């Protein structure tokens, strides 16, 4: 006869008694947090879905996209291991970082030329999302009907937030 226990109490198997491994509170907390995140996401997506026009094709398209997003999010939550492979990180060369005081002041003409190459774009009145175009003449092509934020999300731009 087997008595199963989930709280770490002894298990009786035949005439022998042995202890079941207790799940650590940290592991249990992580699992509860993941389940809560999945539940919250499902609730929020359901709220969004209710705003779609029920009589149009829009709702079915949204349902498909939301299901795909939920699957992707669950995949992300199930991921284990470090996102950074620290053994591949190499230290910077000694001269890579200099103190501000050690830098030479550029000439006024050089400052003017550098400023002519800098582009700052303010998005949505935020606190200062900056897009830097590295070289003079570089440009960001936004296709007709697309918006800058979608280019950022697709990974085509490097954004510095501060």
From TrEMBL:
Protein family according to the UniProt entry: Belongs to the UDPGP type 1 family.
Lineage: superkingdom: Eukaryota
Identification of the protein by name: UTP--glucose-1-phosphate uridylyltransferase
Gene Ontology biological process terms, A to Z: UDP-alpha-D-glucose metabolic process
Taxon lineage: Eukaryota, Metazoa, Ecdysozoa, Arthropoda, Chelicerata
Task performed by this protein: UTP--glucose-1-phosphate uridylyltransferase catalyzing the conversion of glucose-1-phosphate into UDP-glucose, a crucial precursor for the production of glycogen.
Annotated segments matching region Disordered: 1-29
SUPFAM superfamilies the record matches: Nucleotide-diphospho-sugar transferases (SSF53448)
Keyword Ribosomal protein recorded: no
EC number: 2.7.7.9
Oligomer status and interactors: Homooctamer.
An annotated Gene Ontology molecular function: UTP:glucose-1-phosphate uridylyltransferase activity
Enzymatic reactions: alpha-D-glucose 1-phosphate + UTP + H(+) = UDP-alpha-D-glucose + diphosphate
Keyword hit for Transferase: yes
């Amino acid at each position: 006869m087997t008595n199963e226990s989930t709280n770490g109490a002894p298990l009786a198997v035949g005439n022998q008694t042995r202890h079941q491994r207790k799940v650590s509170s940290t592991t249990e907390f992580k699992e509860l947090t993941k389940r809560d995140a999945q539940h919250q996401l499902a609730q929020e997506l359901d709220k969004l879905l209710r705003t779609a026009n029920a009589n149009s094709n829009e709702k079915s398209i949204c349902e498909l996209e939301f299901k795909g997003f939920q699957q992707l999010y669950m995949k992300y939550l199930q991921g284990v291991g470090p996102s950074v492979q620290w053994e591949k990180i190499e230290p910077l060369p000694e001269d890579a970082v200099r103190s501000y005081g050690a830098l030479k002041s550029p000439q006024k003409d050089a400052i003017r030329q550098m400023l002519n190459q800098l582009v700052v774009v303010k998005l949505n009145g935020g606190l200062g999302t900056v897009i830097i175009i590295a070289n003079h003449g570089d440009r960001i092509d936004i296709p007709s009907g697309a918006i800058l934020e979608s280019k950022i999300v697709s990974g085509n731009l490097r954004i510095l937030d501060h």
